[in-house]
Design a protein that fits this description.
By secondary structure, this protein is an alpha/beta fold. It contains two helices and 24 strands. The strands form four sheets. An eight-stranded mixed beta sheet has the order 5-8-11-14-17-20-23-24, with no helix packed on it. Strand 1, helix 1 and strand 2 form a beta-alpha-beta unit. The radius of gyration is 17 Å and the shape is globular. The model has no long low-confidence stretch (mean pLDDT 96).
């Protein structure tokens, strides 16, 4: 049994701790890594904050999990651990998720309870699939993506790196979402979303805050 450190003590980090405490015999929760020393003051847990992810020095037996909902923050706050210390990041699939044996899931991913991942899906490193999300056959999801609750990624859809798909959205079959794009809540994506843009609506169109 290895000692698990969760990067991020926010709401997502607390959810991930629950997944581990519910049913995961491989890891013993050791603590959170968060630059906000008071992040758990209002919501104390069985483990506390034991360091800052940007300065933490791993010890033998440590294993890590990235539980930050924003893909860019996930990249930035795990970078020293990944690139300098080259630590082991665990992939955790909750036992209540349904993942077919032909799906491929990368390093450092989190698959939440009641998510469904179909045949020949490919999910890159450090991507998170939240509760009740459904990923159809042959879909491709890149690195550092966040697929939120109740989303449907239809068969054959393509999602680039650093993409956030907000709750209740649908990415239709054959649609392509470019790197760094954001899909707003409740949107239906048909066709192609350019890299780096935010889309919203049904059908989803480019959206900018004014």
């Amino acid at each position: 049994m290895r000692n698990l450190l969760i990067v991020g003590a926010g709401g997502f980090g607390r959810e991930v701790l629950t997944y581990i405490e519910d049913d995961n015999p491989l890891f013993r929760p050791k603590g959170f890594l968060d630059s906000r020393t008071g992040a758990l003051d209002a919501t104390p847990r069985s483990i506390g904050i034991v360091g800052d992810p940007l300065s933490y020095v791993p010890v033998e037996g440590d294993v890590f999990m990235a539980a930050l909902g924003d893909p860019r923050a996930r990249f930035d706050y795990t970078r020293p651990l990944r690139e300098i210390h080259q630590v082991d990041f665990a992939t955790v699939v909750h036992p209540q998720a349904h993942v077919t044996r032909h799906a491929r899931i990368g390093r450092g991913c989190i698959v939440a309870p009641r998510a469904g991942i179909s045949v020949d899906v490919q999910i890159g490193d450090f991507s998170c699939i939240q509760e009740y999300a459904v990923i159809g056959h042959d879909a491709r999801i890149g690195d550092f993506c966040q697929i939120n609750s109740h989303c449907t990624i239809a068969g054959g859809a393509r999602i680039g790196d650093f993409v956030t798909v907000h709750p209740n959205s649908v990415i239709t079959s054959g649609a392509v979402v470019g790197d760094g794009a954001t899909v707003g809540a409740g949107s239906v994506v048909v066709g192609r979303v350019p890299p780096g843009v935010t889309v919203l609506g049904n059908p989803a169109r480019r959206f900018e805050f004014r």
